[in-house]
Amino acid sequence: MWCICRATSSRTSSPRCWPSRSTEPSRDCWQRSHPFVPESIEFRAAGVRTHPEGRTLLEPLDLLLAERRISVIGANGSGKSTLLRLINGLLLPTEGTVAVHGNDTRTMGRTVRRSVGFVFTDPLSQLVMPTGREDVELSLRTLRLSSGDRRSRAGEVLRRFGIDHLADRSSYDLSGGERQILALAVVLATEPRILVADEPTTLLDLRNDARVRSLIAGLDQQVVFTTHNLDFALESDRTLVLDAGRIVFDGPADDAVAHYRQLCSCAPLGGP
Ligand SMILES: Nc1ncnc2c1ncn2[C@@H]1O[C@H](COP(=O)(O)OP(=O)(O)OP(=O)(O)O)[C@@H](O)[C@H]1O
């Protein structure tokens, strides 16, 4: 049975979930639909406004994210990246709280950042070393390994991602897609408990798009990602649709994609 969950404006942490075809919210429904991941990302009345003008980038939202694969879709500027940045404390909510596995991003930022790996849309914003191998080694420093262990582990990571031939090249000499896979390898090298990825396939050709999607599908970690590729969104367990800083749909991916198509008036003429 599917549970349809929607964002609420209430200041409770309980998600509002409805067994399909019911109008009554059900906590039991929520629990049955989340049997696999006991830990979660929790947004409590978390909203974001700019300073000093006070423009709302994200309306306050109450959400509990516990599924393994969660996608966030919506138009340009709807607030998807803003929502993702709240998860690792890159951005703090102007009001309310965000907690990752019980750790408040405001007061436990370092702990949160150790458990959340973040992949940016622009890979060059996280590839800072002269070569790809050194970028992976830099990422591995958080594990306090010896330099020899870091080097051999970096080699293993690059091989696992099929990019060991890029190890000694500058990221500036790589194609956009090669950079994007390298950035993903750099972040996953430390095996974060959660992967948050902002449009991780946006620069990829068909082959690499399929490779990265299959890699993400096979990860043990919880993954939260934004995408404009609706086929990719359909591979998730739960999809949030954002519009003008507000979650306008939260539920199964296929329903969410249909909702988004209607929202942007790009549903095929004569379609359902
Ligand atoms: N630091 C900031 N200061 C002011 N406005 C901002 C800031 N960051 C983002 N915005 C604005 O907030 C809105 C949401 O931005 P966000 O990057 O979250 O959108 P998005 O849904 O990820 O868009 P896209 O699909 O184009 O990547 C945009 O209008 C953007 O211009």
From TrEMBL:
One function term, GO molecular function aspect:
ATP binding
SMART domains with a match to the protein in the record = AAA
Q: Which GO terms describe its cellular component?
A: ATP-binding cassette (ABC) transporter complex
User: Which residue intervals define the domain ABC transporter in the entry?
Assistant: 43-269
Gene3D superfamilies from the UniProt entry: P-loop containing nucleotide triphosphate hydrolases
- Alphabetized InterPro entries for the sequence: AAA+_ATPase, ABC_transporter-like_ATP-bd, ABC_transpr_CbiO/EcfA_su, ECF_ABC_transporter_ATP-bd, P-loop_NTPase
Arranged from A to Z, the UniProt key words for this protein are: ATP-binding, Nucleotide-binding, Transport
Q: What family does this chain come from, according to its entry?
A: Belongs to the ABC transporter superfamily.
* Annotated protein name in UniProt: ABC transporter ATP-binding protein
| Source organism of this protein record | Arthrobacter echini
Cite the source lineage.
Bacteria, Bacillati, Actinomycetota, Actinomycetes, Micrococcales
